[in-house]
Design brief:
two-stranded antiparallel sheet, 3 helices, elongated, 2 strands, about 15% strand, alpha+beta
Length: about 70
Amino acid sequence: MQRLLIIAGLLLLIAGAAWPWLSRLPFGRLPGDLTIERENFSFHFPLTTCLIVSLVLTLALWLIRK
């Protein structure tokens, strides 16, 4: 558990340092992401982005455990 928390912390640190470059990636604006805009209201749910992130994390954790 300690090793997992250290790795997660390091990944968050790296992602935070690389955020200016990561924010230019098209994640969050992929086809299939839901966006509803009305007067005085907007809702954005990145459905496709969530599925891709889930798939990548599942594969990574599966490879780590194997």
